[in-house]
Amino acid sequence: MKHEIIEQFPLSNGIEVHEFLYQKDDIVSPHSSLWGDFNFSLNGTLEFDIEGKYYLSPPSYGLWLPPRTEHQSLPVAHEIHYICIRLHPRYGDFLGDTCRCFSIEPFFRALVVQILAQQKQNASPEYLEHLRQVLFDQLKQAPAYSHYLPQSTHPILAPILAQLADPELFNLSLQQILLNVSVSERHLLRLSQHELQLSLSEWRNRAKIIFAINQIRQGMTIKQLAYVLGYHHSSSFIEFFKRYTGQTPIQLKNASI
């Protein structure tokens, strides 16, 4: 029955694609919407306070905000091209009733850019409807996570995650930390994929990014931070940071001054 209702409710009335340009130090006040919002960045990282919880929105991950979810962004480091896909409640049910992260593939990004361009050119309603349908189909199959840094209470995995997120152990390799774990590497891989939908190396990289952002905001130098995170050269850390956030540590630091 729900499928039939959706079919009778055209996508043109249920999905809107908007773009925003955030300037340095811009802050969006707390707000919510009657529609759901699927948000992601084209060129930088936004930090959100969503109902009192901290979320990251880097270029490769979108944030789903269900209807009536109060949220606000924190000050940005540089101009960010941000996308908001608004979904009528009839279409957003499948994304869930809690805030979640979704992987953004290059095709999805290119599709959104194409839709924005066609909207500006007043393309035919039929063509835009087709593009929205493809966008909707892509959203339905995008990998989802409970958080940018998902957690687990599994008795084997939980203590491992605690070590991987411990700043005092960031200078150790993943292999060194797992050296005394009693289960096989293959079992750990299956466990992390089942519990986190991420590899342990990817999870640890995200833990490092969140730690790095917090330390930069508190005034730690780039050189000090690179050392804490186990990098012998600041340039390697800068490359790592930019790959995950779309900006350099200096750009983030300047936004915090």
From TrEMBL:
Highest taxon listed in the record's lineage: Bacteria
Record domain HTH araC/xylS-type: where: 154-255
Keywords assigned: DNA-binding, Transcription, Transcription regulation
Keyword Transcription assigned: yes
InterPro entries in UniProt: Homeodomain-like_sf (IPR009057), HTH_AraC (IPR018060), HTH_AraC-typ_CS (IPR018062), RmlC_Cupin_sf (IPR011051)
Gene Ontology molecular function, alphabetical: DNA-binding transcription factor activity; sequence-specific DNA binding
Protein name according to UniProt: HTH araC/xylS-type domain-containing protein
Species this protein is from: Acinetobacter tjernbergiae DSM 14971 = CIP 107465
Species classification: Bacteria, Pseudomonadati, Pseudomonadota, Gammaproteobacteria, Moraxellales
